[in-house]
Amino acid sequence: MKRKKLVWFLRIVAAAILLQTLFFKFSGAEESVYIFSKLGMEPYGRIGSGIAELIAAILILIPKTTWMGALLACGIMSGAILSHLFVLGIAVENDGGLLFVLALIVLLSCIELINLSRNNFFNLLKAK
């Protein structure tokens, strides 16, 4: 029972963070436009990453597809973290590093979700 609660907690944390950022990406918020302009990916990178994050969040919340969403989110968050480390800096537009920390939380939550649902992944590999 504790495992099931942990899985749901991790799902909700990861999906909530992913979904919360969508408003800023899709509305063209100043900070989002700044980030993707600095990365040379405005507006397509901003909109594309928002769509990918929406898909990942939905997959994470569906028990049978949690591992797929977590895998997708790991890829997205790895890109975000690397962008912070090599291009943007940890703190962006005086956010005190909040976006960086949120990306780390999603990444770590999703790594644990993949670990906890590894049997689903391995069963898919065995299916013929």
TrEMBL record:
Under Pfam families, the record lists: DoxX
Which compartments is it annotated to reside in?
A: Membrane
Specify where it is mainly localized.
Answer: membrane
Membrane topology summary: Multi-pass membrane protein
Per the UniProt record, the source organism is Flavobacterium pectinovorum
The record's listing under InterPro entries reads: DoxX
Cite a GO CC annotation: membrane
Taxonomic lineage of the native organism: Bacteria, Pseudomonadati, Bacteroidota, Flavobacteriia, Flavobacteriales
Q: What is this protein called?
A: DoxX family protein
Identify the domain of life. Bacteria
Which residues span the membrane? 44-62, 69-92, 98-116
Q: Which UniProt keywords apply?
A: Membrane, Transmembrane, Transmembrane helix
